[in-house]
């Protein structure tokens, strides 16, 4: 046993000697090469170097850009605040699209539980929440999923951030024949009856209006959307001269990308023709006692009561397209077919005896 211990000691002593006699460190060698990108554990694709987080955030969250967007937004109808606080903003049934706090509650919980005593105007945080992916195109929009149409519960996907607009800018009611299929008459029960004051998404998509039969065919090609152009392309183009960007006001320069000779939005006389058709249909509805002019409201309103189904459908199309306010630009062929066929359906020779 003693012999084994002696042998072990002879091995250990030199190790302590070497340890205690280590000299000063030499100069550092050159830096090594960067390591290879990591491997994605899911699909095996080589990873890539990340972007500096601070630089990425500052591409949007910098003083100059934020001030510019705020000034643009202050020129928009949404930024005025009157849409929020006047009349509808505090009502639970309207607040989801007429007040900032109502919209946030709706986007977060799916509904608005009760009236608001202090409806808030829209601001940046109304539409934009906290980023979820922090990628370059992550604008943290609250309602960017495909829209569910109010009029029939089906889904429509504009394929881009235009879905945010469509959730509110859509018809709140089905057209009369969808509401009462097969009926020959229809009861207009309120002076507020109609698609609502801003069913632009339905016009753009070519869905939700009363497609009355007539000599005009409803087009399969839906103008701008068939060309891949939606709300944000025209209403949020490059900001210039008080239009575009976060003013949401269309800038003619956005049109000239496709319509190179355009000098106004009345391209191909679409707005002129649409205005004339709307006026013709309005006068027919006036003459037949479907609508009346209310001086107090400075507006044409439906006369509450029973009307023929043809008259109710024609009114639905007239008021919805009048309040679309694009004068046909959103979907020229579809709008023309709706108006022409509506006019034909209620001309005296077409009405049921």
Folded structure, characterized:
The chain has 353 residues and is mainly alpha-helical. It contains 16 helices and six strands. The chain has a two-stranded antiparallel ribbon with strand order 1-2. Strands 3-6 form a two-stranded antiparallel ribbon. A hairpin with a 4-residue loop joins strand 4 (291-294) and strand 5 (299-302). The N and C termini lie far apart (127 Å).
Total DSSP helices: 16
Helix content: 25-40%
Largest sheet: 2 strands, antiparallel
End-to-end separation in angstroms reads 127 Å
Return the string of H and E elements.
HHHHHHHHEEHHEHHHHEEEHH
Structural class from helices and strands? mainly alpha
DSSP strand count: 6
Beta-strand level of the residues, as a percent range?
5-15%
Lateral strand order in the biggest sheet: 1-2
Shape: elongated
- Low-confidence segments, given as residue ranges, are none
Global mean pLDDT: 86
How would the blueprint of this fold be written?
Elements: H1 2-20, H2 53-58, H3 63-73, H4 77-80, H5 82-85, H6 92-98, H7 100-109, H8 124-127, E1 147-148, E2 155-156, H9 162-166, H10 176-179, E3 185-188, H11 200-205, H12 231-235, H13 252-255, H14 270-287, E4 291-294, E5 299-302, E6 305-308, H15 309-324, H16 332-346
Antiparallel strand pairs: 1-2, 3-6, 4-5
């Amino acid at each position: 046993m003693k012999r084994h211990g002696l042998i072990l000691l002879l091995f250990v002593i030199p190790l302590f000697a070497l340890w205690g006699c280590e000299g000063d460190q030499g100069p550092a060698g050159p830096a090594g090469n960067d390591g290879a990108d990591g491997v994605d554990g899911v699909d095996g694709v080589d990873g890539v170097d990340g972007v500096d987080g601070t630089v990425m955030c500052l591409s949007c969250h910098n003083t100059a850009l934020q001030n510019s967007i705020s000034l643009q937004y202050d020129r928009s109808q949404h930024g005025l605040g009157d849409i929020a606080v006047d009349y509808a903003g505090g009502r639970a049934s309207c607040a989801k699209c007429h007040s900032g706090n109502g919209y946030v509650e709706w986007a977060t919980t799916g509904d608005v539980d009760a009236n608001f005593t202090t409806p808030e105007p829209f601001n940046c945080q109304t539409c934009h929440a906290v980023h979820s992916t922090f990628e370059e195109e992550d604008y943290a929009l609250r309602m960017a999923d495909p829209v569910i149409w109010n009029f029939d519960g089906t889904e429509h996907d504009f394929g881009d951030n235009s879905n945010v607009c469509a959730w509110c800018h859509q018809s709140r009611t089905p057209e009369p024949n969808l509401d009462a299929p097969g009926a020959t008459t229809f009861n207009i029960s309120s002076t507020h009856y109609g698609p609502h004051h801003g069913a632009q998404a339905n016009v753009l998509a070519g869905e939700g209006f009363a497609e009355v039969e007539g000599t005009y065919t409803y087009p399969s090609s839906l103008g701008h959307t068939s060309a891949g152009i939606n709300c944000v392309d025209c209403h949020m183009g490059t900001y210039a001269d008080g239009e575009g960007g976060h003013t949401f006001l269309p800038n003619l320069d956005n049109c000239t990308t496709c319509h190179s000779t355009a000098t106004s939005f009345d391209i191909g006389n679409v707005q002129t023709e649409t205005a004339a058709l709307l006026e013709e249909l309005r006068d027919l509805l006036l003459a037949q006692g479907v609508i009346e002019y209310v001086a107090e409201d400075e507006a044409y309103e439906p006369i509450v009561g029973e009307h023929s189904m043809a008259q109710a459908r024609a009114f639905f199309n007239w008021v919805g397209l009048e309040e679309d306010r694009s004068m046909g630009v959103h979907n020229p062929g579809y709008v023309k077919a709706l108006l022409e066929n509506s006019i034909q359906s209620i001309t005296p020779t077409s009405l049921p005896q």
